[in-house]
Amino acid sequence: MPYSELLVRPMREELSSAGVKELRTPEEVDAFMNEKSGTAMLVVNSVCGCAAGMARPGVRLALDGDRRPDRVASVFAGQDLEATARARSYIPDIPPSSPSVAFFKDGELVYFLPRHRIEGRDAHSVARDLTQVFAEHCAVPAT
After folding, report:
1. Can you tell me the distance from the alpha carbon of 113 to that of 74, in angstroms, rounded to the nearest whole number?
2. Is 138 an active-site residue?
3. How many other CB atoms sit within 10 Å of the CB of residue 26?
4. Whole-model pTM above 0.70?
5. Strand runs (DSSP E) across the chain, as ranges?
6. DSSP string, 7-23
7. Which pLDDT band holds residue 143 (cuts at 50, 70, 90)?
8. Which residue is catalytic, options 48, 77, 101, 138?
9. CATH number of 5-136, picked from 3.30.40.10, 3.40.50.1950, 3.40.30.10, 3.40.50.720
10. Is there a contact between 59 and 125 (Cβ–Cβ < 8 Å)?
11. 39-45 and 100-105 beta bridge pairing
């Protein structure tokens, strides 16, 4: 049974207010993932207090940097069950982990940040990991 929408709304808004697109259905996940060119980051959001409480602010901090992915979206584990299952189908060799962050370049998974690498760290550490990935894979924005 999914978590109450009332419970997860603030956690959704923490990412959506930073420009992260919510994917609520398998079809929305497929549409996002089928855009193969460029860079894409997919966040598996979660109610988990410790890890998700650092993952969301870490994502927000990273997205405020000079470089960012072309597309950024999230699914909510424990809420959007079918969308989350579909998202995980795009990273089949990695065990389910929530929260987590998958980073794709031209449709290929190039980086994955699982829950166990988020737990026990602060948001700045999570952001630092993501900004390093952005620096390696994302184009410098035009000025």
Report:
1. 14
2. no
3. 18
4. yes
5. 21-22, 39-45, 71-76, 100-105, 108-113
6. HHHHHHHHHHTTTPEE-
7. low
8. 48
9. 3.40.30.10
10. no
11. antiparallel
Strands 71-76 and 21-22: parallel
What's the pLDDT tens digit per position in 45-78?
998 777 888 999 999 999 999 999 999 999 999 8
pLDDT tens for residues 11-43?
A: 999 999 999 999 999 999 999 999 989 999 999
Spans of all domains in the chain:
5-136
**What is the C-alpha separation between 11 and 56, in angstroms, rounded?**
8
Catalytic-role residue among 7, 31, 35, 50: 50
Among 85, 89, 76, 66, CA closest to 20: 76
Confidence of residue 142 (pLDDT cuts 50, 70, 90): low
Active site residue 48: yes
